[in-house]
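From the shared-data thread, chain only:
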Amino acid sequence: MFGVGIRRKFVKAMKAKAKKFAVMIVASFVLVAPAAAADNESYGINWSALGDLISGVGDLMPSIGDLVVAVVPILLLLSVVGFLVGLFDSIIGAIQDAFRMFRR
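Structure, as tokens:
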């Protein structure tokens, strides 16, 4: 029969996926259950710490911008040098191939 091999591969692939799915479901229950069981009244979000974190990240942004501005010219220079080295390498390779042809 034509479809028997395809059917076996499909069933085998589905069994492997079913095992992974079952592990994912069990892991999600283990991780979500304590959070769902916690009393919502007793836990809260510390908004002041979150605000300090956001302002700290905002203070970092200008220094990251300075870093990008300092790195871009170096990357451009390296790309130009890499292009020129590759160009000269191909020219020298072509000359060597031409001389090899004359030696024959």
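The chain has a mean pLDDT of 81.
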